Amino acid sequence: MPALDHYWYSLNPVSLALLPLAGLFWLLAGLRRQLYRLGLLRSVRLPRPVIVVGNISVGGSGKSPLVIALARHLQALGYRPGIISRGHGGRASHWPQPVHADSDPLLLGDEPVMIAEQTGCPVWVGPDRVAAAQALLAQQPCDLLISDDGLQHYRLQRDLEIALIDGTRRFGNGLPLPAGPLREPPSRLTRVDWCLVKGRAGVGEAGLDLALDLALDLHLGEAINLQDPSRRLPLSQFIGSPVHAIAGIGHPESFFALLRQQGLELIEHAFDDHHPFQAADLAFGGEIPLLMTAKDGVKCRPLAQPWHWVVPLQASLPPAFTQALEARLAELCAAYPSPGVSPGARPGATSGAHHG
């Protein structure tokens, strides 16, 4: 609902007029949650631990950089994570499907292709995350699974939940879809394992007893040439002359703001989330450097020119979070059957834990 996006962050005549539909959405969403809680709707437990990364609002909050950072951290610890995603925006004729670094993002989704490219993890996508996870596990001996943007996909049972909150936009006007950006009420955050905040953390959100003191540091990496990825430049090399900047993400201004913080003078071009870029979208005349997000870069590769650059968004995980996560995972993985990994290939533990 991109046309409504700019109405979601204030109380205005449009959002107020949509309150009856928002009330119906709230009622149906709550009923669905309760049916899963009571077991009247069937959920599926997989033979590996499942970590869900998600949020309660619509729009870019930094979930994909968090998934990438989480996968890399787990790989460094010796785990072999697999990643599942919905493949939002993908036009494939059948699901689920595996995703590789060179997959077509228009068929399988731009975020999964970006995640596969930056992590090297097995990635499978499909609207039914259970089917995607089962297909992945049938092909790959993974220790655990990360579900990207799966907080509301209750058919998939999960062991750990990580919710991400936009540090600037927070919960918008506090209203549910379509009057506001919320997919679930803020009280849902009291039942997740960790709340991370993109940017500024705070204490006490929306009247809830939430201590959101785990700030996720999101920062820009060096620019990577889209035509020749071996060419890399620090962003300081682009200071002094205007550059074009495009962003087809949930919150384009967040990307532009990070570039401006580096001292760059921008000519901004915002597009809808998951925009299918065409050559005309990048034809600004001349050879002025053009900077874009990594998510947009996987779609613009066929259109690459020497002056096109990708600037990846990178996440640094809070140490307090990684310490707690490692302890929980050691317990969880010990409670699940081994995927045929030799002893010592991943961290072990002596006790088991279960989280519904």
Description:
The protein has 356 residues and is of the alpha/beta class. It has two domains: 42-217 and 317-335, Rossmann fold (3-Layer(aba) Sandwich), CATH 3.40.50; 222-311. It has nine helices and 17 strands. The strands form three sheets. The protein has a nine-stranded mixed beta sheet with strand order 3-4-2-5-1-6-7-10-17, sandwiched between helices. A six-stranded mixed beta sheet has the order 12-11-16-15-13-14. The chain has a two-stranded antiparallel ribbon with strand order 8-9. Helix 5 packs across helix 8. The two termini are 31 Å apart. The model is unreliable at 203-209 and 341-356 (pLDDT under 50).
Largest sheet: 9 strands, mixed
Overall strand count: 17
Distance between the termini: 31 Å
Structural class: alpha/beta
Q: What do the pLDDT scores average to?
A: 89
